[in-house]
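Following up on my earlier thread - several people asked me to post the actual chain instead of describing it. Fair enough. Here it is, all 242 residues.
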Amino acid sequence: MTGADQPHILVVDDDDRLRDLLTRYLGENGFNVSAARDALEARASLAGLQFDLIVLDVLMPGEKGVDLARSLREEGAKVPILLLTALSETEDRIAGLEAGVDDYLAKPFEPRELVLRIEAILRRYGELPEVASDEVVVAESNAVSFGQFRFDSAKMILQRGDEHIYLTTAEQALLAALVKRRGQTTSREELHGMISGNAVDPAASRSIDVQVTRLRRKFEEDPKQPRYLQTVRGRGYVLYTD
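Reply from S.P.:
Thanks for posting it. Predicted structure:
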């Protein structure tokens, strides 16, 4: 991809060295990159340009990264957000998921992992083509229904009739995992492993709880008394479909 076909990434970080490094590395790996040193500069960029994804640091002078993410979601912005946190900042990761970020990456990290995370998010949003496969898999159906809602796990789309219900990529991945195991109780640790493919981190169980809460708000008539996405005390979660 070149020129206008390159996904446009906004890197927001007050660390000059890291911001410059990420800007250069992402640019070398097929992205069009803009940079901002704080939330104020980020807002100015967002007001004038369209971005396909934001890489956002948690700790910045002035408005913090989580606060900026929450504010953007409240304003209706649907641009994917990848949050950069420190390994010890479990609370910030949880707060970020509650605010509606799509994924988080703990510092220090390998730049290549950041690229892979970005590519995965953009594929879910349809901004990048799916990775080609030599195998052709024919599925009976990629979509399942629960009540008035229908989720297509191939396209990662949740709909109620003709209405498209917005999901972050974290919510898409969790719902796809639950659909794959529908009718079966799955532990938080198993769900985290299915979503991330990584070893369990200290925030894993709580992050799943946060995402389950957010999902319920989007398709349960009464999220406090869920009909479809239920808790199995001491064991995990189970999704019941029609």
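Residues 143-239 form a domain with the Arc Repressor Mutant, subunit A fold (CATH 1.10.10.10). That should answer part of your original question.
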